[in-house]
Amino acid sequence: MKRIAILGATGSIGTQALEVARERPDFVKIEVLTAACNADLLISQALEFLPKTVVITDESKYPLVKKALAATSIEVLTGSEALNEVVKSTSIDMVLTALVGFAGLRPTVAAIEAGKDIALANKETLVVAGEHIMALAKQHHVKIIPVDSEHSAIFQCLAGESLDSVEKIYLTASGGPFRGRNKDFLAHITKKEALKHPNWVMGQKITIDSASLMNKGLEVIEAKWLFNLSIEQIEVVVHPQSIVHSLVQFKDGSLKAQLGLPDMKLPIQYALSYPGRLVNSFRRFRFIDYPQLSFEQPDLETFANLRLAYSAIKEGGNMPCVLNAANEIAVAAFLNEEIGFLEMSVIIEETMQAIPFILSPSLSDYVSMDEEARRVAKELVTKRKKVYQIEK
Ligand code: NDP
Ligand code: MG
Does the C-beta of 244 come closer than 6 Å to ligand 1? Predict the structure, then answer.
């Protein structure tokens, strides 16, 4: 039996993790559930799974949640700081980090320092501070098990292998809804079109990241830290069917891949059950449904975000943190229809140019770098917004 805290229980990963818990109540015990502002869903999840504690970080929603759970013994907490506290509870074995963006960094650090194993969905934490996080996990003898499907695939391919035997890895990318399109096309696409992912239903931020290929850029950085690889050892290959979740090439030239239907419940369950596997009733792959699997090169010219992510990690230091912060601002501005699709890359690149380079940031440097990069990116959005509104 694994006792789990789910940070971001009301999101796409969080709700799918609860489906896993529903499927295997004999194996998963929910101890903590958290949400930012979706009080109604958090309340219904709490009444179903009866965790020890829930956190609603939006303080204005606290009275609602507190009142709805008054007849239970569930503790109700509020505020972002509460996330850093709940992960320390002695009744938790593992923390699933399913919240989105930089907000995942501090609770993940707190959980590692408390010796909790991490099922890591929140890739932004490793993008921002991967070196720091991996060193901290080693120091506290904590396992970080990837939930991201590509990284779960690599992790599964590496079972029983030594990292020294790896020549390189291939991260597969669906290519998103705009695969094969050029910049002229991308200049006019709408928020609605960008939110239509061909293979996965996910939260809004990662769906936009998938359409712009920033998601793959963030995943390259995530893989570098998780598997201790050089950036030259990580290649992206576009695979529109999303069946081959990623591959490892060993130094004898042999390739191992992990395949399956595009269903996040699988990597979530594997992270919870690792090193074992659990029987489940999820839909199975049928060859007849996929007579052809295809592979192609990513288009780094059209999808500049992937190129920017490679250049951020090659520069190292604070640059991936700056890239991430600028991207969070750019995606939010695109979703607010303040800027166009292609302008996201412009804002990210200009923010990276504006922020001074720091070679070895501390954890508090990352926090101030994140703030500074957000400030610069927001200014750039304000400037672009005017041009965009006139053009529209
Ligand atoms: P969603 O937007 O669907 O869910 C995010 C969750 O985090 C919600 O519970 C939300 O609460 C909560 N949350 C959001 N912002 C904050 C904040 N500032 N503080 C505290 N809680 C917050 O995201 P996804 O589930 O799609 O993604 C979660 C993470 O997993 C991301 O890092 C993503 O990159 C990664 N991932 C997701 C995949 C997917 O298939 N969705 C696949 C691979 C990785 P509320 O609902 O109240 O707003
Ligand atoms: Mg992924």
Answer: no
298 — phi, psi (to 5°)? -70, 150
**Cis omega (within 30 of 0) on the bond before 361?**
no
- Each residue of 74-133: pLDDT tens digit? 999 999 999 999 999 999 999 999 999 999 999 999 999 999 999 999 999 999 999 999
Using a cut of 0.85, tell me whether the model's pTM lies above it. yes
d(CA 121, ligand 2 centre) in Å: 9
Comma-separated ranges of CATH 1.10.1740.10 domains in the chain: 316-392
H runs (alpha helix) in 162-213: 183-186, 191-194, 204-212
Range(s) for CATH 3.40.50.720 in the chain? Answer: 2-146
Cβ distance 103 to 81 under 8 Å? Answer: no
CATH class, 2-146 region: alpha beta
Does the domain spanning 316-392 belong to CATH 3.90.330.10? Answer: no
Ligand nearest to the CA of 245: 2
- Listed residue (80, 85, 40) closest to 57, CA to CA: 80
